Amino acid sequence: MLDKIKALREEIKQLTAQTADEAEHLRIKYLSKKGIISELFNDFKTIPSEQKREVGQVINVLKNEAQEFINGLKEQFADTQVKGAGVDLTLPGTVMKLGSRHPLSLVRNEIVNIFARLGFNISEGPEIEDDFHVFTALNFPEEHPARDMQDTFFIEKDPDVLLRTHTSSVQVRVMEKTQPPIRSIFPGRVFRNEAISARAHCIFHQVEGLYIDENVSFADLKQTLLYFAKEMFGEKTQIRLRPSYFPFTEPSAEMDISCTLCGGKGCNVCKYTGWVEILGCGMVDPHVLEYSNIDSEKYTGFAFGMGIERITMLKYQIKDIRLFFENDVRFLEQFKASI
Ligand code: 2U9
């Protein structure tokens, strides 16, 4: 048995491995439970008891030597693998650069959340629309300039197909399908055939709102918009309503807020008036209710609409609308918010 162990010691000293896998195979061959050295311990049980002490010691020495030798073979590969890949595992990891939300998304979410607190739900609809939902159902007369190709993008082959110029078409679709009470907010992208400048773009975003029920009054409209203005621009914000005209509301108004920059004292943002226009609104014209089969004797409603770009420009004092569409990261990464 001692001769066998001696031969095995010599054999192990000669072992070589070219890869980490080969070294692992050697470990299994000699040191695993069913390996050659473990088998020696089985033979050990059969030798005479007076030899047990000496043979036991020699087998243990062999086992330790084999473990050390084969571990050495393995470590050699672990070392070259890391060195070969040029990896310094002590260096800190590469930090992933997080993106930021687009300012228009931030403001859209903020607007939607304010109205959600008043019980408004969100509705969305198609950007490619037909004449009825964009114009006719909203009481636009046949000769209204918005129906002109100068103002609206039409599909050449079919003048009944166009890009929506406001999200009011979604309100029409909701009214067609739902009887009041309706209390919804309508965010979305709209298209107008306008020359691009610092103040106007042919693509922009709107949020419109609609509330139809029995006994909805102009006072409800005013209070809702006052709440919105204070939540959006701060508790001290004041509002004023000026008479206006839209085909789909009667009476109609435009709403100003006290200037967010000077607080109403006068500055170049409010052109020294103390007030800045932020939205249009009014009581839904009874004809518009009837177009969508809502009983205008029983129900009344208010509606409002605002441009998200305009609100965002005011809130963050952005001077040029084109910045929203250029995707310049130096602009975009300034808007880090958690919503
Ligand atoms: C229905 C009935 C009424 C939505 C309204 C405005 C006034 C308005 C403009 C603000 C700036 C559009 O983005 S903007 O150019 N909007 O002034 N919008 S009332 O009225 C509706 C909508 C749908 C069925």
Automatic annotation (TrEMBL):
CDD domains attached to this UniProt entry: PheRS_alpha_core
Location in or out of the cell: Cytoplasm
Cofactor requirement: Mg(2+)
UniProt key word Metal-binding: yes
Protein residues bound to Mg(2+): E250
A GO molecular-function descriptor: tRNA binding
Annotated ranges, domain Aminoacyl-transfer RNA synthetases class-II family profile: 107-326
Keyword Nucleotide-binding attached: yes
EC number, as in UniProt: 6.1.1.20
Keywords: Aminoacyl-tRNA synthetase, ATP-binding, Cytoplasm, Ligase, Magnesium, Metal-binding, Nucleotide-binding, Protein biosynthesis
Record GO biological process: phenylalanyl-tRNA aminoacylation
One Pfam family this sequence matches: tRNA-synt_2d
Catalytic activity of the protein: tRNA(Phe) + L-phenylalanine + ATP = L-phenylalanyl-tRNA(Phe) + AMP + diphosphate + H(+)
GO CC annotations on file: cytoplasm
Cofactor note: Binds 2 magnesium ions per tetramer.
Entries under HAMAP family matching the protein: Phe_tRNA_synth_alpha1
The family this protein is said to belong to: Belongs to the class-II aminoacyl-tRNA synthetase family. Phe-tRNA synthetase alpha subunit type 1 subfamily.
Subunit (UniProt): Tetramer of two alpha and two beta subunits.
Protein name stated in the entry: Phenylalanine--tRNA ligase alpha subunit
Organism of provenance: Saccharicrinis fermentans DSM 9555 = JCM 21142
Chain's gene name: pheS
